[in-house]
Design goal:
Blueprint: H1 30-33, H2 39-49
């Protein structure tokens, strides 16, 4: 990788969207894939665990969209 790049016609923030949502992939171990074959099954299981957490939320990622 070069130490510095030159973009004379570059436009800063051209693709930046402040309201964009980022969905990161989560990789399950092979033994868990049998029990959680799709995203919905994982989400159902995690929602069942929410009442067991303390009243503090970890952040906006726990909200249901």
């Amino acid at each position: 990788m070069k130490k510095e790049y030159y973009f004379p016609k570059g436009e800063r923030g051209k693709f930046y969207r402040p309201d964009a949502k980022l969905n990161l992939p989560v990789y399950l171990e092979p033994d868990l894939r049998d029990y959680f074959p799709d995203a919905e099954s994982v989400n159902r299981a995690l929602r069942c665990l929410l009442p067991l957490l303390s009243s503090k939320k970890a952040g906006p990622s726990l909200k249901k969209n």
